[in-house]
Every structure is written in C-alpha cells, then in structure tokens.
Write a structure and sequence with these properties.
Distance between the termini: 41 Å
Structural class: alpha/beta
CATH architecture of the largest domain: 3-Layer(aba) Sandwich
Number of strands: 14
Helix content: 25-40%
Strand content: 15-25%
Oligomer: single chain
Order of helices and strands: HEHEHHHEHEEHEHEEEHEEHEEEH
CATH superfamily of the largest domain: Class I glutamine amidotransferase (GATase) domain
Length: 360
C-alpha cells in the first residue's frame, strides 16, 4: 500500500526553511494512485499535475517517456512562463524515434540474445563499468539484439565461465590483482576465436597473452604487474621513468588517434583520424612484435608522432581488438560507439552467421 506521509513530512521540512517545491517527483515501485497524488498535492501546496510518478522501469531510457506522458515538460514551461516548447519538442519525429529506441533496449527475444563475458577485478561493484555496460547496450539496440552480461571474477578459475559466452570484453583496471585470470581470458579468446574487445588495461593484457601464447615469450608481462619480468612488453615509454612521482606519466584526456588503413578499426570508424579519450600510464611496447616476421598481431592505431601504440588487433576474420582509448565515453543511445558497434556486429556474425542491419 502506498503511503503519502513520508513525502508530506519531507515537504513540510522544506517549507519550514522557506522552500516551497514547484514539482514533486515520487520514486516508487509502481505508478502512484490518483488518491495518493491528490493527498500529496493537497498537503504539499502544489497542483495535482505537479505530482509526478517515477515508477521502476526496465530501462533508464524509459524515464523521459514516463515524464512526457504526465506532461512534466509542459508544466515546467508553464511555470517558467515559456511560450512554447522547442518546435513542440519535435513530438512527431524525436518522441516517436525515442519510443522506438526504448523498445529496442527492452528487447527480450531469447533468439536474439548475446552473452558477453566481462572478466575483471571489480565485478562485485558493477557500476565500476557503467560506461562500458551502456555502450554495449547502445550497440546491441542498434541491431535489435538484447544483451546478457556475464560477470567473471578473475581471481578464480575462469575457463569454465567462458564456455557459453558469445564474446569477451576485457575491462580496464590497475594493479596486479586478478591479472593472470584476465590474461587467461585473452588466451582463451585467441585459442577459440571468440570475438574479443580489450579496453585500456584489457588491450595491454591481450598483448601480453599474444606474446606468451604466439611468440613463446612465456614470462612476458607488464612492469606494472611484475617489475622484474624478462619481457616487459607493457612498460613506460623510454625516458618516462624519470617522471615517476611527478604525475607526468599519466596520459589523460581526449587525443587524436591515427588509424591504419585496411584494419578492423579503420573499417569501424571509416576515417583516418578520430578523437577518443585516454587514461593510462603504461604503454604497449612495439619492439617485441617487430622482432618477429609475419605475426598475426598488428598495430592498427597510433598517436600523431607514430611512437605511441593506441590500438592493436589480430589479422583475418577473427575480431580481436584492443584499444588504449575508452570509446565507451563517447557512446550515445542514438550514436553508439563505432568500436562497440563493430564488436557487436562481429559477435552476431560469429553466432548467427549473418551480417545484421542497423535499425536506427
């Protein structure tokens, strides 16, 4: 049974310090009943149309639709004495497009489900990867598929958890905890040709996995994880050690990324120069694959100088890409990240043996 008393008390506390709310948005499991709305309006000194219900929803993108149904936007415009909403909020176009997009986000067809493993060290706090989660949802909705995430704690045995997944996204992170389990996930993707995307630390661990498994550098590692590794395939750039302790080793913010032609990354973005956001201190050291001829692993993106590796990938049909940048930060519901779109497209092709068409 819904109770209005807690809301009434909260409003009374506001009024006691001279604050009168114009709108009251009430969170609840279900829609507020008309009776409860009337009580809240009466005892809070607001109009009944200013009491807005905010029930639990399947997707956060449903919230604007719920508010629009209750004419919250119209009420705010009236309260602020705005003569009209922007071209009637483009109700004919944008609102219907938004509804269509929300339906795609709430797609539950079991025949259109993609199971993506998210191995990481912070899986107990899923909001640690909220930007990645949303970017994956954007890309799945783009093709009309639904996403099922499988969180994998890499401090435990991981191989059994990977047997039923359609793709692997190796997450960002810092430090040595759970790293060997994450490297095993990358090795598993290499061996079983499962679509794989490594973000930042996930790209570095993909490189380590490749050096160990394919180049026979058994003890290859990152200096962040093992300072005395004989093969520091992930390390500071030359000269950076002198900057330790000054904060000068962190590569942070939006930067230009120069893509190599005829790569999966170039095919995803369809342009030579893109701008993406970074946050990392250690770098993929290219010399370890330069020493080997005809390797399957290639550098697919660099910085402007050509000295810093921004992305790597495996040649051929197997989608296995690692990026130092965080493409998820620029993903939006109507403009999903090209990198994540390419990843999801590869998963669909691998699982259903078809190339999907975008739905918006």
């Amino acid at each position: 049974q819904q109770k209005s008393k807690p809301t009434q008390h909260s409003v009374r506390s506001l009024q006691s310090v001279g604050l009168q709310p114009d709108v009251i948005i009430c969170r609840s499991e279900k829609w507020l009943s008309d009776d409860v709305k009337r009580k809240i309006a009466l005892f809070s000194n607001v109009e009944p149309t200013a009491v807005i219900s905010a029930p639990d929803v399947e997707s956060i993108y449903s919230v604007p639709i719920i508010f629009e149904k209750q004419k919250l936007g119209d009420y705010i415009c009236k309260k602020l004495e705005l003569t009209s909403r922007l071209v009637e909020y483009n109700k004919i176009n944008n609102y219907s497009e938004w509804q269509k997009m929300v339906k795609l986000y709430e797609e539950k067809d079991p025949n259109k489900q993609l199971i993506i493993a998210m191995p990481g060290k912070y899986v107990d706090i899923v909001d640690s990867y909220v930007s990645i989660n949303e970017a994956l949802k954007h890309a799945c909705a783009y093709f009309g598929y639904n996403l099922k995430l499988k969180w994998i704690n890499t401090e435990k045995e991981v191989e059994n958890d990977l047997k039923e997944v359609d793709g692997i996204l190796l997450t960002p992170g810092f430090g040595s905890r759970g790293v060997e389990g994450m490297i095993k996930c990358a090795e598993y993707a290499l061996e079983h040709k499962i679509p794989y995307l490594g973000i930042c630390f996930g790209a570095q661990l993909m490189y380590i996995a490749y050096c160990r498994k394919c180049l026979n550098l058994k003890d290859a590692n990152s200096r962040e994880v093992c300072e005395d590794t004989p093969y520091p395939v992930v390390d500071f750039l030359e000269g950076q050690e002198e900057l330790l302790g000054t904060g000068g080793t962190m590569r942070l913010g939006a930067m230009e990324v120069y893509l190599e032609p005829n790569t999966k990354l170039y095919e995803a973005y369809k342009q030579k120069v893109i701008k993406e956001r970074f946050r990392h201190r250690f770098h993929i050291i290219e010399k370890y694959i330069k020493d080997y001829k005809n390797t399957d692993l290639i550098i697919s993106a660099r910085d402007k100088t050509g000295k810093i590796v921004n992305a790597i990938e495996i040649k051929g049909d197997h989608f296995m890409v690692g990026t130092q940048f965080h493409a998820e930060f620029k993903s939006r519901p109507f403009e999903p990240s090209p990198l994540y779109v390419a990843f999801i497209k590869a998963i669909i092709k691998n699982k259903y043996n078809k190339i999907p068409n975008p739905l918006f």
